[in-house]
Write a structure and sequence with these properties.
Radius of gyration: 19 Å
Helix content: 25-40%
CATH architecture: 3-Layer(aba) Sandwich
Order of helices and strands: HEHEHEHEHE
Strand content: 5-15%
CATH class: Alpha Beta
CATH superfamily: Phosphoglycerate mutase-like
Largest sheet: 3 strands, parallel
Strand order of the largest sheet: 2-1-4
Structural class: mainly alpha
Distance between the termini: 45 Å
């Protein structure tokens, strides 16, 4: 078993294949436009999910599946070792054809062993990710392959209703991005939280 940067399980591969089947049908039967650009979380299980999801599809030659690895697109950060990413060198060696965004450092500097990112901090991180994407990518159709927690945070960041997305599922979201003058409103961000502890003392077993 792998505790740091968990690998995709056999069930996870099957779930990603369901997403692949959806895209295959959507592209051939429903005429859905394929993504123009792709972004993916740096965590191992998500990298593999993206590869299975988009492999073997009939995509336009001008729009091949070549995702960019984005640091901020990862799952909630801290405490859980499965959410501590591998090194940049490891990602580059296992996915050599996929570009890694500029500024992506060798070792994970965001993960903390004793603090977990709060939900509100997660939403702010996803908003920063979207700001970065919209500032540098003028594509109409954009694919983000991420995790359940980060998908919920993205929906919250754009004011979308919450939607419980199953593992391996896909949700389309229409976003209109506009440049607005002035400073953004302040964020009410909760501090990162320590791991929960159990304070209940064990009671002595009853005696006859």
């Amino acid at each position: 078993m792998t505790w740091a940067d968990a690998e995709l399980t056999d069930i996870g591969i099957q779930q990603a294949q369901i997403a692949n089947d959806f895209w295959r049908s959507a592209l051939s039967d429903s005429g859905i436009s394929p993504p123009v650009t792709y972004y993916v979380s740096p965590l191992n299980r998500c990298l593999e999910t993206a590869r299975v999801t988009f492999s073997g599809l009939d995509l336009p030659k001008s729009q091949p599946f070549i995702p960019t690895v984005k640091e901020l697109l990862r799952e909630g950060i801290g405490i859980h070792t499965c959410d501590r990413r591998s090194s940049r060198s490891w990602i580059a060696s296992h996915y050599p054809e996929w570009p890694i965004e500029e500024g992506f450092v060798e070792h994970d500097q965001l993960w903390l062993a004793d603090l977990r990112e709060s939900d509100s901090a997660h939403v702010v991180r996803m908003r920063a990710l979207l700001d970065d994407v919209f500032a540098h990518d003028d594509s109409t159709w954009i694919s983000l392959t991420s995790h359940s927690g980060s998908i919920r945070a993205i929906l919250a960041a754009v004011g979308h209703q919450q939607f419980p997305l199953a593992t391996g599922a896909i949700i389309p979201v229409f976003i209109k991005a506009e440049w607005v003058d002035g400073l953004p409103p302040p964020d009410d961000v909760e501090p990162w939280q320590p791991a929960p502890t159990c304070n209940l003392a064990q009671s002595a077993p009853p005696t006859a």
